[in-house]
Automatic annotation (TrEMBL):
Domain Plant heme peroxidase family profile, first and last residues per copy: 28-333
Name of this protein: Peroxidase
Classification via SUPFAM superfamilies: Heme-dependent peroxidases
Active-site residues, Swiss-Prot/TrEMBL: H69
Signal peptide: 1-27
Cofactor binding remark: Binds 2 calcium ions per subunit. Binds 1 heme b (iron(II)-protoporphyrin IX) group per subunit.
Family, as annotated: Belongs to the peroxidase family. Classical plant (class III) peroxidase subfamily. Belongs to the peroxidase family. Ascorbate peroxidase subfamily.
UniProt-annotated binding residues for Ca(2+) 1: D70, V73, G75, D77, S79, E94
Cellular component, GO, one term: extracellular region
Length: 358
């Protein structure tokens, strides 16, 4: 008699445990996550990104960077897209953090993608997945590798300017600091070298380069790890005492395509940022042999870039019932509701005004 309830209890326990386990395996990202709910999502993202990049080829680089700057702060949860708000919760946007301010691009493109995706499948695809898909599509359109993008991320309901300032590495950091910034996100030295290869395209402002050209580490001299011909060229583009807002291509020969020239450039002291050149010029560093491998073998670079992009895309993801799927990428849904309500109220009051004047 007494064994029956025990068995029932044991069964319940088994069901609960398996329920939890199967929930957690459901909570993994999966490239076919939108197979039934938004089967065409990749094509929609691709069409918008392709359209925009025809007029603005740099946008491919900007979109890859946006995904990186999202993932290093509270995980890949589209926190970077949230704007400043006071209500219903206070959000201090990451967009004004030092590494992002006057620097990140593509926020409007993400909104364009979201609008196109919402039209096809309303309320289904997260802004975090849109950022991840846009990064992969940008790699392909930039001549880089393709990969199956794990999907099913949910959007966060908060942002952190503080963590954006803390977690995103500076172009003036030592190699050890770069390594620890990546290690803090679960990314190792190979990931650091492979992902830095994203600096194979796009632009940087002179402000991040000038000290290397005129007064490196307050030595009164240029950075000794900078090729002298390249130095003269960069001085032409970034005058001493200039505003710092001039743009320089990361790469001389193929400024808008993804290839392994970034690594060959490092071998001849033609890395643009201090943080780039350190990967090769730090004496005795374990990154040197990785740079050599990628410089000699583009397939090896592509294979590692792919793997590291997927790894980066998995950082701190919210899945299942965590977070939400934002309706508008710049606001949490509670804020969007508040804004919708406000627009309904203002429409009603203008109708009332019309009625009373009638
Ligand atoms: C290793 C540490 C890194 C540092 C210190 C760093 C720093 C920078 C800086 C200073 C710029 C120029 C920003 C400006 O001029 O406003 C830049 C641009 C860029 N970064 Fe990085 N970055 C790093 C890693 C990465 C990673 C991991 C990726 C992507 C996987 C990435 C992708 C890009 C791209 C594509 C651009 C050009 C963006 C454009 O033209 O709009 N960076 N980075
Ligand atoms: C998928 O999206 C692309 C790009 O927007 C469009 O050309 C195509 O017709 C769509 N296919 C389906 C089945 O909806
Ligand atoms: C892309 O550009 C084509 C041609 O200009 C246009 O017909 C199409 O509507 C655009 N698609 C999107 C999603 O913007
Ligand atoms: C969000 O903030 C950005 C500036 O960071 C601004 O350009 C954009 O218009 C804002 N978006 C909305 C929907 O208010
Ligand atoms: C970095 O991590 C990848 C797997 O994510 C692994 O294959 C690789 O060997 C690791 N590299 C180092 C230097 O630890
Ligand atoms: C380099 O920077 C240091 C510290 O700011 C300054 O004292 C020195 O005069 C500068 N040298 C040159 C040549 O600009």
């Amino acid at each position: 008699m007494r064994s029956i309830p025990v068995t029932v209890a044991a069964l319940c326990y088994v069901v609960v445990v398996f329920g939890v386990l199967s929930f957690s395996s459901n909570a993994e990202l999966d490239p076919s996550f939108y197979k039934n709910t938004c089967p065409n999502v990749s094509s929609i993202v691709r069409e918008v990104v392709r359209n925009v990049s025809k007029k603005d080829p740099r946008m491919l680089a900007s979109l890859i960077r946006l995904h990186f700057h999202d993932c290093f702060v509270l995980g890949c949860d589209a926190s970077i897209l949230l704007n400043n708000t006071d209500t219903p919760t206070k959000i201090e946007s990451e967009q004004q953090a030092a590494p992002n301010d006057n620097s990140i691009r593509g926020l409007d493109v993400v909104n364009q993608i979201k609008t196109a995706v919402e039209k096809a499948c309303p309320g289904v695809v997260s802004c975090a997945d849109i950022l991840t898909l846009a990064a992969e599509i940008s790699s392909v359109l930039g001549g880089g590798p393709d990969w199956k993008v794990p999907l099913g991320r949910r959007d966060g309901v908060t942002a952190s300017r503080t963590l954006a300032n803390q977690n995103l590495p500076s172009p003036f950091s030592s190699l050890d600091k770069l390594k620890s910034a990546f290690a803090a996100q679960g990314l190792n030295t190979t990931d650091l070298v492979a992902l830095s290869g994203a600096h194979t395209f796009g632009r940087a402002r002179c402000t991040f380069v000038t000290s290397r050209l005129y007064n490196f580490s307050n030595s009164g001299k240029p950075d000794p790890t900078l090729d002298t011909t390249y130095l003269q060229q960069l001085r032409g583009q970034c005058p001493n005492g200039g505003s710092g807002n001039n743009l320089v291509n990361f790469e001389l020969t193929s400024p808008d395509t993804i290839d392994n020239d970034y690594y060959s450039n490092l071998k001849v002291k033609k890395g643009l940022l201090q943080s780039d050149q350190e990967l090769f010029s730090t004496s005795g560093a374990d990154t040197i042999s990785i740079v050599n491998t990628f410089a000699n073998n583009q397939d090896a670079f592509f294979a590692n870039f792919k793997a590291s992009m997927i790894k980066m895309g998995n950082i701190g993801v919210k899945t299942g019932k965590d977070g939400e799927v934002r309706k508008q990428c710049n606001f949490i849904n509670k804020k969007s509701a508040e804004l919708d309500l406000a627009s309904v109220v203002s429409k009603e009051s203008s109708q009332e005004a019309m009625v009373s004047s009638f």
